[in-house]
Amino acid sequence: MNKAVTLKGRKEGFQLILDASASIDSILEEIKELKVQLKNDTQTGHELTFFVKSGIRKLSSDEKKQIEEIIEDDHFTISSFQSEVILIDEAIKLHKASRPKLEVRTVRSGQILDIEGDLLLIGEVHPGGTVRATGSIFVIGELKGIAHAGFNGNENAIVLANFRHNAQVRIGGNVHVVEKTENSSEQSDELKFVYVNDLHIIEVSPLHNLKTIRPEIGKHSGGLF
Known about the structure:
- By secondary structure, the chain is α/β, with parallel strands linked by helices.
- The strands form three sheets. It has a six-stranded mixed sheet, with no helix packed on it. It has a five-stranded mixed sheet with strand order 6-8-10-12-13, with no helix packed on it. A four-stranded mixed sheet has the order 1-2-3-4, covered by helices on one side.
- The protein folds into two domains: 81 residues; 129 residues, Pectate Lyase C-like (3 Solenoid).
- The relative contact order is 0.09.
- Helix 1 runs parallel beside helix 2.
- Strand 2, helix 1 and strand 3 form a beta-alpha-beta unit.
């Protein structure tokens, strides 16, 4: 008969590997037995950390709570629950976040365009218009208004555009005004990107530096991975 729970040691503590096909009652019963055994084999006062792995089984909040009530006390704690599956709602959210959203439109003064994930805008942002995204923003067109990338706090986001006009760029909580004079000595059609450097300061850089500074930008496949 297969065990419902397998105990394995690791550097940081112990893994509790749950059999995905076992009933929750069997799992809880075996966890109780394992805890008694560990209590007998462990020196008094020694703290142990557990990492619960459920494989292709998604534990409910109630099931996690039942396991916590058995394991956790003054000396035993659960560090995390790990599963190889996710709920449909979580999968959809990850999909939206990883797949750039294409918008073909003009954002006029007073209008705000909000996007979850990355935004690819083909069009114009007029003065007084705002585009916001939780991810990065790529503008193919004229940016004259405000582009706020990573507006939920993601400072790894960037704003890529042709800054031929004055524009305000925000990344996370950082604000920078890109002035037309910054491009006056260079080609007017050169794309640049704005990013937050390691010192948490906004910088403007030519497009050819993008792969070096943000190598992860080119790895989006439009799916979950």
